[in-house]
Amino acid sequence: MWTKLKSLAQDAETRKITELFEDPGRAEAFSTSFDQTLFDFSKTNIDAATLAALLELAENAGVATKRDAMFSGAKINETEGRAVLHTALRNLDGAPVAVDGEDVMPGVLKTLDRMSDFAGQVRDGSFRGQGGAITDVVNIGIGGSDLGPVMAYKALAPYADGPRVHYVSNVDGADIADTLRGLNPETTLVIVASKTFTTIETMTNARTARAWMSEKVSDPAAQFAALSTDQEKTGAFGIDPARVFGFEDWVGGRYSVWGPIGLSLMIGIGSDAFRAFLRGGQAMDRHFKEAEFAENMPVLLALVGIWHNQVLGHATRAVLPYDNRLVRLPAYLQQLEMESNGKSVAIDGSDLGHNSGPVVWGEPGTNGQHAFYQLIHQGTRVIPCEFLVAAEGHEPELAHHHQLLVANCLAQSEALMRGRTLDEAREKVAGKFEGDEMERQARHRVFPGNRPSTTLIYPQLTPEILGQIVALYEHRVFVEGVILDINSYDQWGVELGKELATALGPIVAGEESAESKDGSTRQLVEYVLKHRG
Ligand code: F6P
C-alpha cells in the first residue's frame, strides 16, 4: 500500500489542489462532521483514489482491531506491559472496563466524586487555608502533569469562576519565583501533580513551595494536595491521604488530564464544567469506535497526517488555532504527538522503515501571520497547516473582532491553496516599476500556492467541544501509531537526558570533576563555574 501511495503522490505532484475543486461536491466529500464540529480536509491534494488508498492502509494496519483492544483494556503498551485506558476516565456512564479481569470503573468514578467533593470545598470556602478561603491554587507538575491542565484552563477561561489557578513546571527557579511572588501562602493551595512522584523538576518545585509556605503557615502540609499513582511517596512527602487523588499506571502522563491530573482545572471551572469536558471526550470516543472509517474524524485526521508526513515527506505540521485561548494547544500537542510517535523502532524492535511522527509546532492566529507565515507561504519547504476556529467567540460585544478573526483564518487557507502567479504579481507592480525591475519586483510577490491545509471548525470553545478536540487528537495519534507500527504509549527517548542530568548535577555544583566529559561539556561547565556569583 505504501508503494501505491508513493505512486499516487507522484500523480498529485502534477495537479493543483484548486483543480480538485472543479468537482462541485469536493468540499462536502472531503469533510466529515461529528456532532456540530466539521473537519474539512478538502484543501489538501488528496483525491478520491488517494483517500481510498489511505482508508485501505488503515484497514490493513488493523486499526479497528487495535482500537477495540485499547478500549477493552488489553496491554497494548507492550514495552511497559500496561493497558492504555485514559478513555476509562471519561467513561461517565460507568460501563465496565476490565484490566486483568477487574472492572476499573467503580474506582474511576469514586475518584471523580472525591475530586468533585474536594474541588467543591475549595471553591465554596469550606476547605480553608490558615488565612481563610483559598484564593489561589498552584499546580506543580511537568509534561503531561502540566500541559493538559494548563492548556485546558486557559482554553476555558470564560468558565473559570473559582480561585485563580497558576501552573509551575520548569525547574528554572524563575518559574516558581515569578508565580509565588504576590501570592499569599495563607490562602494558597499547592497541588503536586506527578504520576510517578519522582520527577526531579516537580519534586524540587514542590519542596521550594513547601519552604515558601512554611514561612507563614504553621502546618503547610495541610495546604498541599497530591495527584499520583504512588501513594507511598505522597505519604512520605507528608500529604494527608484525604487529599491524595490516585490513578493507575494505565493512564499515560500525556493522556492524563481527564482524571486526577485535571484537579486544578476542576477547581478553576467547577465540577459540572469539568464533567462536560469529559462528556465531550467520551462522545468523541463513541464516534471513533462506531463511525465508518470514511466518516471517522480521528481516522481521517490521522490519514491526512500520514499522507503529508510519511507519503509526501513534509517533516513538520503547524497547528494554528484561530482561538487565542488555545494558546497552549500547540505545546500540548507537541507532547501528545511527539512523545507518542517520535520513535524509530517498530513494536517488534526492528527499524521503523519509514518516517516517525512529524515535528508539531504552532501559535495562535492571527499572531503567527505577523511572524512566521512568511515562510509557510513562500519558503521552499511545504508546511501542512491545521487551522482551528470557532464560529462564535465568548465576547458578544466584540463580535466584530471575531468576524475579523474568522476572515483571517479562511483567508490563510485560501491563500495557501491559491497562491499568486507571476502574471498576477506583475499586475500588482505594474505602473510602479518598469522593465527588468518590474520583473524582479514581481517575482518577489509570487506565491507558489498549492499548499495544503485542513480546518477544524466548531460552534464555540465550550468545555464539551474542548473535550471533543482533545480526544480527537489523542485518537489521531493512536491511529497514526498503529499505521506506523509504533508503540505510542512509552517514552524511552526521555531517559538518557535525565540520567546524564543526574550525573552532571554534582559536576555543575563544583563538587565533582568534569574530567570524564567531552571537550564541549567540560568547556561549558568551566564557563558556568567561572561566571556564576
Ligand atoms: O519525562 C517524560 C515524562 O515522563 C512524561 O511522559 C510525563 O508526562 C512527565 O515526564 C511527567 O511525569 P510525572 O507525572 O511522573 O511527574
TrEMBL record:
Keywords: Cytoplasm, Gluconeogenesis, Glycolysis, Isomerase
Catalytic residues (positions): 339 (proton donor), 370, 498
GO cellular component labels: cytosol
Main location: cytoplasm
Pfam families for the chain: PGI
Pathway: Carbohydrate degradation; glycolysis; D-glyceraldehyde 3-phosphate and glycerone phosphate from D-glucose: step 2/4; Carbohydrate biosynthesis; gluconeogenesis
CDD domains, sorted: SIS_PGI_1, SIS_PGI_2
SUPFAM superfamilies tied to this protein: SIS domain
Enzyme Commission code(s) on record: 5.3.1.9
Reaction it catalyzes: alpha-D-glucose 6-phosphate = beta-D-fructose 6-phosphate
Record bears the keyword Ion transport: no
Keyword Glycosyltransferase annotated: no
Gene3D superfamilies associated with the record: 1.10.1390.10, Glucose-6-phosphate isomerase like protein, domain 1
Molecular function GO labels: carbohydrate derivative binding; glucose-6-phosphate isomerase activity; monosaccharide binding
UniProt GO BP: gluconeogenesis; glucose 6-phosphate metabolic process; glycolytic process
Subcellular location, record wording: Cytoplasm
Family: Belongs to the GPI family.
Function (record text): Catalyzes the reversible isomerization of glucose-6-phosphate to fructose-6-phosphate.
Name of the protein described by the UniProt record: Glucose-6-phosphate isomerase
